[in-house]
Specification:
This protein has 126 residues and is mainly beta. It has no helices and eleven strands. The strands form two sheets. Strands 2, 4, 5, 6, 9, 10 and 11 form a seven-stranded mixed sheet that branches. Strands 1-3-8-7 form a four-stranded antiparallel sheet, with no helix packed on it.
Amino acid sequence: QVQLVESGGGLVQAGGSLRLSCATSGRGVSNYAMGWFRQAPGKERAFVAGISGGGGNTNYADSVKGRFTISRDNAKNTVYLQMNSLKPEDTAVYYCAEETARYGLGSPNQYDYDYWGQGTQVTVSS
C-alpha cells in the first residue's frame, strides 16, 4: 500500500519562501513520477509541478515557473517543492501524488495519479 505524507506548510508573508516535503512508501520510488497539486478555496485542484522517477524531467504550471522548484531524493523516498517569492494567490492546500503508471514524466493531469497525500496548508499573507 502506497502512503504519501506531506509536511512543511504554514503561514508566510508575501515574498517569502517555504519548502514542502512528501515522504513516500510502499513501492519502488524511483520507478514512479510524482506531482504536486494545489486546491484553493472554491477552486478546482490544479497542477503545480511534476517530476519523473529519476528526477531528470520536470514540468511546471505557468503560474509558478521561475519561483517553484520540484526535486526528489530517492534514497530518502522524499519529494520536495521549494517555493520562493510566494504570492497571496499561492494560498491553497498542497497535495503530493504518485503516478499510476511506471516511468511517467510528471503529468499535469490529476487523473494520471492514483495515490495522494492528505495535503498541507500554505497561507501567504499580503
